[in-house]
Design goal:
The complex is a heterodimer of chains A (about 725) and B (about 160).
Chain A lengths: L2 H18 L10 H4 L9 E4 L2 E3 L5 E5 L8 H13 L6 E5 L22 H28 L7 E3 L2 E3 L5 E3 H8 L27 H5 L15 E6 L7 E6 L1 H4 L4 E7 L2 E6 L2 H9 L2 E5 L8 H12 L4 E6 L2 H7 L4 E7 L11 E7 L2 E6 L4 H12 L6 E5 L15 H13 L3 E4 L2 H6 L7 E9 L5 E9 L19 H4 L11 E7 L15 H18 L4 H8 L4 H14 L10 E9 L2 E11 L5 E11 L6 H20 L5 E2 L2 E2 L17 E6 L17 H13 L10 H10 L1
Parallel strand pairs in A: 3-4, 8-18, 16-17, 20-21, 24-27
Antiparallel strand pairs in A: 1-2, 2-3, 5-6, 6-7, 8-11, 9-12, 10-11, 13-21, 14-19, 15-16, 15-18, 19-20, 22-23, 23-24, 25-26
Helix pairs in contact in A: 3-4, 4-5, 11-12, 15-19, 18-19
Chain B lengths: L1 E5 L2 E5 L7 H8 L18 E4 L2 E4 L12 E3 L9 H9 L8 H14 L5 H8 L9 H11 L12
Parallel strand pairs in B: 1-5
Antiparallel strand pairs in B: 1-2, 3-4, 3-5
Classes of the chains: A alpha+beta (about 725), B alpha+beta (about 160).
Bound molecules: FE2/S2 (inorganic) cluster (2 copies).
């Protein structure tokens, strides 16, 4: 537990103890102190993000959730660069939930998402560091009775005339008394820390087992619960008999909550054993009707009808009607689970006048508000602590706050601190998937073989619909459904993109790279088809169509060159290329694949070029590209959530496989030097991977597979069609 | 009462013998470094050493480790070459799978001090990483190769 939160925890415990003791005090959780990370005795706390101790220690308070992307390093680097402190003195703390830590662009909520952590905090954190530096310099100048202009900060010291110097620690108390500069000036000249591969501050805790994830939270008197959930979406408990479950040693209680029936026990194992013995009669409702084949048919039918127009340049339908030769195909991608390595879980200690929640959330303000509603408290009465997240990928930013609400309801029902844990199967089957999509695309070519018209219909559920973000749907268009297609950079004179947003009971959610995860596959695969149809090299074809987009071009050319595009390959191997912009970053990938004797795709190598603008930590960027590629590969090769009689057919990693060490290709990442505004890196590595692999599969085998995942069955079928 | 050794210390636990070792480690003994990922032996997040061999503690009943020696991530010394290599390669991302990865790697190197890529594939393919740190893990294992203490997983 961090010091920042220890403060609030202590207050919580104190208050709760008073309440429990029956003292007639108005013992609300003290508000003021909890609004921001509290400063300790003698500490220099110039703003919500920074504490400098009298010992010179620098603590940087991070308002973004750490889920692998390295924010506990990249964000401190932004502060430390301007503070001019010794990086070795820097540590991090997770921020509490408070307005000071709200997202700078997404409105009044604390959230980690949209690959925005670095880009949205760059200015605020740089200024936070600069302000503190100016105060430390001013403190030293006063000490020496000289002008601040003759003093400068470097490596945790302020240097003055005549070789005098004072370290930050000895200046901390004095600096704390000085006014905070209104307009701090950023350093000019070379950066000392930004752009360097500084070591991750969170690595040591992650390799010795001390990093606390939500599932590791323990507390005195804590019980553990698992929930029996309806077998279909929208299902409800009709009745249940808990007698056998309660007979399991260690089971303490069985309670009904909105999510199902919770078995509460001394530990996970008795809870799980108890759950197996529950006898529940479910009211399945219409959810039992859902099946993947039927849904695919429905989507295909919709794709044949006009949708809401998301982009219209020229007259694509007209040109297509006149065309001598038109290409028309359907692309499909399935529902996908986030499958974070750490299954969802949440710890709740609910008292009459306050509540402590510890969990791995990307959506703190929203989750806290939902918890407050479930608990019957005000949000400010809830201390919401962010643990390490064993993966997020969007799943832990759920507008429905499903895993938080259910834990609060269990805690309320049993009146004891409790941690609700989902088994892998619970996690996999409880919904909030990347939507299933069906795309119908038609195109015709001009005389030179380039697209003259492109008519694209997208069919799939809206992520925003039915959430508090519904107002972002404008004129029937949820941008996250069409991003990456409606805003394609390719020079296509007649372009029309339409959208159908059918509704059904399967809960959907943003999944690492959101709409781009499907649009890039369709755009980049179909463009590849057109290049081949025109008898042109797919790489050169893209270059021509992106002539006005230098950043696309640069990554495309870099990836092609590094991959040896056009050079001979061993027999049976093929190369595929894809380029896609998302989240402010530009990425091209070249995949090299072959087919094994069972028609399973083997990916041997992926070369990735990225332009994400100005760089904080190049090693983090590489790691995020490697990560996105692996994530994209699992989706390209294996991932599918399917339903039969409303039941999700997958449950664990045997039927929802991930790429393994053995299947992992060699990955090379090249960062294209750039002075542009910073872009995101958490998500943009994902979209180009599936199309690069599918295009390589075509190059290697002649099989054009237009549906993910690229399974041996589909490959064999596509080969037959030839 | 089930008696066994964890990280060199004798432990006596009073739990039903069918309880998976993982939950005894995590909940009874408070050693939360070993993680729950699948509960079915499919992901490797719960990997520990039992009498020197990498095993999935989520499918190992505690009754079966009676009298045996268990080493968890908490029992790997801070200066172990595998940990050093992990840090140098910045292998961790979210970190959730990493204790299990490290336990598999330590066991591999104890058995094969200079593993080939094929050895790494077969020893490590049961350890899933959703964050995609495989390339770095492979490099870290190679970097630690020849340096790991022969027994591996010695107590600090
Ligand atoms: S939790 Fe044991 S192998 Fe997955
Ligand atoms: S580091 Fe996140 S699952 Fe491996």
């Amino acid at each position: 537990m961090s010091d920042v939160t220890r403060m609030s925890r202590r207050q919580f415990m104190k208050t709760s103890a008073l309440a429990a003791g029956g003292l007639m005090l108005a013992c609300h959780l003290p508000l003021g102190r909890r609004d921001a990370a509290a400063a300790g005795e003698g500490e220099f706390a110039p703003n919500a993000f920074l504490r400098i101790g009298t010992d010179g220690s620098v603590t940087i308070i991070v308002n973004k959730s750490e889920m692998g992307q390295g924010v506990y390093t990249s964000l401190p680097m932004l502060v430390a660069e301007e503070l001019c402190c010794d990086w070795k003195r820097v540590t991090f703390q997770a921020s509490p939930v408070a307005p000071e830590y709200n997202h700078t662009q997404f409105g009044p909520i604390m959230v980690t998402g949209g690959s925005t952590s670095v880009r949205s905090e760059w200015n605020r954190l740089s200024l936070a560091g600069a302000a503190a530096r100016e105060m430390l310099v001013a403190a030293a100048a006063q000490e020496w009775k000289v002008e601040t202009a003759v003093c400068r900060a470097e490596n945790s010291f302020v240097h003055g005339p005549g070789g005098r110097k004072l370290d930050f620690g000895s200046l901390a108390s004095k600096a704390a008394t000085l006014p905070v500069p209104k307009e701090p000036k950023l350093k000019s000249g070379r950066k000392s820390l930004l752009g360097t591969p500084a070591k991750r501050l969170d690595s040591p805790a992650k390799i010795n087992g001390t990093a606390t994830f939500g599932i590791d939270v323990q507390a005195p008197g804590m019980l553990t619960a698992v929930i029996a959930r309806p077998p279909v979406f929208g299902g409800k408990v009709k009745s249940f008999d808990a007698a056998k479950a309660k007979a399991v040693p260690g089971v303490r209680d069985v309670v009904a909550v909105d999510a199902g029936v919770a078995v509460v026990a001394d530990g996970f194992w008795p809870a799980r054993k108890g759950r197996e013995l529950l006898e529940i009669v479910w009211d399945e409702g219409e959810g039992a009707q859902i099946s993947t084949p039927a849904m695919r048919e429905e989507f295909a039918r919709l794709a044949a009808t006009p949708g809401v127009v998301a982009r219209k340049d020229g007259d694509a339908p007209g040109e297509l009607a006149r065309a001598a030769r038109r290409f028309e195909v359907d692309y499909e991608v399935p529902y996908l689970a986030h499958a974070t390595m750490e299954p969802l879980n949440c710890f709740v200690d609910l008292r009459s006048d306050g509540c402590l929640i510890r969990t791995g959330s990307q959506f703190q303000t929203v989750d806290r508000a939902a918890a407050a509603r479930a608990a019957g408290l005000q949000p400010e009465q809830i201390i919401f602590e962010t643990t390490f997240l064993g993966g997020g990928f969007g799943r832990r930013a759920c507008p429905a706050s499903d895993f938080v609400i259910e834990a609060v309801q269990v805690a309320k029902a049993i009146g004891k601190p409790v941690k609700v844990i989902r088994t892998r199967e619970d996690d996999m089957r409880a919904g909030f998937y990347r939507p299933q999509w069906h795309d119908r695309v038609a195109a015709c070519l001009d005389k030179k073989g380039y697209p003259l018209a492109w008519h694209h219909r997208i069919v799939g559920q809206s992520i925003m619909a039915g959430t508090p973000f519904e107002s972002m749907i404008k004129n029937g268009i949820d941008d996250t459904s069409v991003e990456g297609a409606a805003d394609t950079p390719y020079a296509i004179p007649n372009l029309q993109v339409e959208l159908h947003s059918p509704k059904n009971l399967v809960p959907v959610l943003w999944w690492r790279s959101v709409g781009h995860s499907h649009t890039a596959f369709v755009m980049e695969s179909f463009l590849d088809e057109l290049a081949h149809a025109a008898g042109k090299d797919p790489y050169q074809y893209r270059r021509t169509l992106l002539a006005k987009h230098p950043r696309h071009l640069m990554v495309l050319e870099t990836a092609a060159r590094k991959a040896g595009w056009g050079k001979p390959l061993p027999k049976g191997r093929g190369r595929g290329i894809a380029v896609h912009e998302s989240f402010g970053s530009f990425i091209a990938q070249v995949a090299e694949v072959s087919l094994d004797s069972k028609s399973q795709v083997r990916v041997h190598r992926v070369v990735c070029a990225v332009d994400c603008g100005r760089v904080v930590n190049p090693d983090t960027i590489k790691a995020q590209m490697e990560s996105g590629i692996t994530f994209g590969l699992s989706a390209a090769l294996y991932g599918a959530i399917t339903l039969k009689n409303g039941r999700v057919e997958q449950g664990n990693f045997d039927d929802y496989p991930l790429v393994t060490m053995e299947a992992m290709p060699k990955v090379e990442v090249y960062i294209v030097p750039s002075n542009e505004a910073p872009g995101g890196v958490g998500e943009p590595g994902v979209p180009p991977t599936a199309p690069a692999v599918a295009n390589a599969l075509f190059a290697a085998s002649g099989a054009r597979v237009r549906s993910l995942p690229l399974t041996p069955d589909k490959i064999r079928n596509a080969k037959k069609k030839g | 009462m089930i008696v066994f050794h964890v990280n060199g210390k004798e432990q006596r636990v009073d739990v039903t013998p069918d309880t998976p070792l993982l939950w005894v480690l995590r909940e009874t003994l408070g050693l939360t470094g070993s993680k729950f990922g699948c509960g079915e032996g499919l992901c490797g997040a719960c990997t520990v050493h039992i009498d020197g061999r990498a095993q999935r503690s989520c499918i190992t009943q505690v009754g079966d480790v009676q009298g045996k020696k268990v080493v968890t991530i908490e029992g790997i010394p801070e200066n172990h070459p595998v940990k050093t290599a992990w840090l140098a390669q910045e292998a961790s991302q979210c970190g959730y799978c990493q204790p299990g990865q490290i336990m598999s790697a330590v066991a591999l190197l104890a058995q094969k001090p200079r593993p080939t890529d094929t050895d790494i594939d077969s020893a490590m393919s049961g350890n899933l990483c959703r964050c995609g740190t495989y390339g770095r893990i492979r490099r870290a294992i190679h970097a630690a190769s020849g340096k790991a203490s022969p027994k591996g997983g010695k107590r600090s």
